[in-house]
Amino acid sequence: MNVDLCSTMYNGVAKALLGSPYFDQCSYHKKLSAGYVDLYRVRTMDCPNPICRSYFPTFETYANTDIYAGCTLTDESTSRQISFKEFAVVCQGIASSSSSPSPAPTGGLLPPPLPPTPPLPSIQARDNESNNSITIIVAVTAIVVVGILVGAFVYMRTKRKAQDPPHSTDFVHIVDPAVHQDPPTSKVVRSTQPNTNHSTAPTATTTAGTTATRLDSSVTHSTNASSFQSVGGQLDMCDLDMYRLPTADVRLVKALAQGAFGEVWVGEYHGGKIAVKRLLPNKSALPDVQKFIWEIKLLSKIDCQFVVQFIGVAWNVPGDMMLLTEFMDGGDLRSVLDANKSSRSFTWIQKLKVALQVAEGLVYLHLMDPKVIHRDLKSRNVLLDSTKGAKITDFGIARETDDSTMTAGIGTFRWIAPEVLQDGHYTEAADMFSFGVILAELSTEIIPYSDLRNDKGNVYTDTAIMAKVMAGELRPSFATDAPMWYLTLANECLAVDPDIRPTAMQVAYGIRSQLEGFV
């Protein structure tokens, strides 16, 4: 066993965890760099702690890798040498405590941004074995980052159970209005409270695509609606009353999609077709609703022909809040590209027009005051319409800021810029990297990186993709017949250095200039 590789891995993990406040309450990383752990303390203190145990799946990933299979540690509680695998699985069978963990040393509910993962010691590439070691170390760095993010997520989720929602500008991510997934087989809309102003609607079951349900002020889908009436004052409603529409005028027609946080329906408002987004009944806690309110407020500020149009918001109680937006009849770009593999109806000119319209949408967002960074730009979040063209949607994790940089918040990793994967550093240049990935999708019509293989001929794992993107060693493929100007523009957007990526305005100008030569 190469002891140096084991030490390098131990040092890298220990430094990363010691630099993160989430893991201050844990014991296992304190002496890990020296090759020591205390299994008794790990079993009694760390394993029951949701945050501390959140990193052990990462340890198990290491232990199952051939290169680390022979790594060992010294157990201080018994003075015996144990395998790294024994340490990695020590929490199995130990129940996690349901109580909230001790707070990390931060001033508010949300932990501070994670520091960049310290670079692992480099190994001089003298032969093929050394080169492979370097590749493994890069992958380890990526796994460390992912592991810390898991810990951060567990920390925030656990803390939110014990505290009121924060006054931050993060937004919850909810499925976009045209994801082509199998809709739920049925949706029950329950009456939860009496109403003196309208006749009480009967309990109705809506089967997707068959039965429509009218929402009046007596009908909600939340089982905890009454709790919002008593604590609604704790919510920052962001002056949404000025955009409030009567729920009696909103009619749910067909369920489109359901995600972990929310659901999207085709609806009707005053006879016109709309998209309706709302939280799931079990996601109607105060923090979830507050995030949804922030998302709605942000969208209400945007008036751009290349961004899905905000219509209004309707609710009886905050837990039943519905975001009403225009309906796009063409679905999302990813679904259109998938279908085009057989239909071949989505032409090159149409693709260029979509690219231009998305770029124009980014120009608008990045020039807003304060500017808006989408942070989750991908083909699923570009909606198409037969008459209105392409529009950007889903501002669930978008941010507006007065600063030139920001941290935290992660979108879908295949579209994420390397600097964001590395340390969570966000500027509008991160959106431009994501746009470059969309240009690759428009060219090949496949999911980014899905066609690429490693040295063994296997599909890249998610961790390997992230590691190679961070290192600037991997870019999505482009079609062999893509025009040179298109490849040049896309590669500029995909530059590892965010400072040399073009702005949205430069990209829009470049595409428009080329498009004028076709039409």
From TrEMBL:
InterPro entries: Kinase-like_dom_sf (IPR011009), Prot_kinase_dom (IPR000719), Ser-Thr/Tyr_kinase_cat_dom (IPR001245), Ser/Thr_kinase_AS (IPR008271), Ser/Thr_Kinases-Pseudokinases (IPR051681). The keyword Kinase applies. Keywords: Kinase, Membrane, Transferase, Transmembrane, Transmembrane helix. It comes from the Eukaryota. The chain crosses the membrane at residues 134-155. GO terms for molecular function: ATP binding; protein serine/threonine kinase activity. This is TKL protein kinase.
